Amino acid sequence: MDPSSQEQPKKRDGFTSNLGVLAATLGSAVGLGNIWKFPSLTGMNGGAAFLIVYLASTLLVGLPAMIAELTLGRAARANAVDAMVKLNPDKRKPWWLVAAAGVLAAFLIMAFYTEVAAWVFAYIFKSIGGGILSTDPAVTSKAFTDLITNPLQSLVWQWVVLAMITVIIIKGVSKGIERTTRRLMPILFFILIAICIRSLTLPGASQGLAFLFKPDFSKITAPVLLTAVGLSFFKLSTGMGTMITYGSYFREDQNIAGTAARVMLADLLVSILAGIAIFPAVFAFGFQPDAGPSLLFITIPSVFASMPFGGVFMVLFFILAAIAATGAMLSLLEVPVAFLEERFKVSRSRATISVSVLLALFGATAALSNSTLANVSIMGKNFFDLYDFISSNLLLPLGGMFITIFVGWVWGFGKVHETLSNNGTLSTRSVNKALFFIIRFVTPVLLFVVLLSGLKIINF
Ligand code: PHE
Known about the structure:
Low-confidence stretches: 1-5
Mean pLDDT: 93
Helix content: over 70%
Structural class: mainly alpha
CATH architecture: Up-down Bundle
Bound molecules: phenylalanine
Number of helices: 18
Number of domains: 1
Oligomer: single chain
Largest sheet: none
Shape: globular
């Protein structure tokens, strides 16, 4: 195919600089997953041993899937669904369905992710007010329960968050997403490092570091391995078309694999720094490290209340979490918006507002799942947990599996190499060969196992 026919149409928006690409893509990867999911999972599953397993699964699953998606996006220069339509050599086979499932997954993740983000944003203001600053976990626990069981507060905060993301997305890819993440990512690192220094200089900090970094290989069991694979996948925002969409905004001379590797490393750094920010402090004040989801909203406020200048650091901590959540939400909303805008030729603001209004209504079921709708249970889950389960356990591994199968078995090495080497300008043939081998044989198989175990079809 004539490569010039793949050139970006003149008016299509995209990222304007290498740094912008990095900020936006990293902004998508870094999210609430780094701030509490990674530290708490690492803490519970063998510390450094889990870290090693997580790294291996990132290299074998997360990163290859991410590169596969970015490659598709850049080659097609279209939203996720149209990219699959465009690149599919056999039009009778409905590969576009994979991307359509991705658009649905993005929508479902947004429905509950905006609610967790809503709590984070609410906590910035609550910590400024000082109401949740108590060394007694019973007090912080009550404050959290009060928030999530209050229908009005849950709903209003979710809609505030959604409105903010909507405004940024309407501004477009370069003026909205790129500009925002370029400003926010440095602030994120700055705050994170400040909190790490605070945490590390507390008396008794070393115990927390030992907890995080001392390997305990006995804790590495088959379910833990699968948790690591799932996390590496979710962390790099793969499996649902986010990276296809972002890849379509990459510049023509962007080194896709190199950018993905950088994002992966920086994302890992954020996760490890989050662990260093949290665990020394948790141990220094005698709190339990394995509180799971409530760590962020119940343990953390008590930990900060125990330390000098804790009030200030707590505000900073929730600003950090809010920034992390923002970049991730921008990339999630962009998937259905880009699809609507391009497929149905509607204006960007109309596409964004339509998706956001739908999300506000649909997401309300997640926001109200601990209050008004607390009694509704589907498959033993409330709406919030249901959306999380369907997207994380079903749609993401399924999407990732089919996308890598498409790239590895249908699209083929020639096209992958052409795109990854920027039409031969980068001499990365052997790297691309190794990568293609992993995309073809390793990633889909591992994702298939994750899928079966997530659905409890196989048990270890
Ligand atoms: N990577 C984000 C996080 O770690 C979550 C995410 C998943 C964002 C899928 C976009 C798409 O929180």
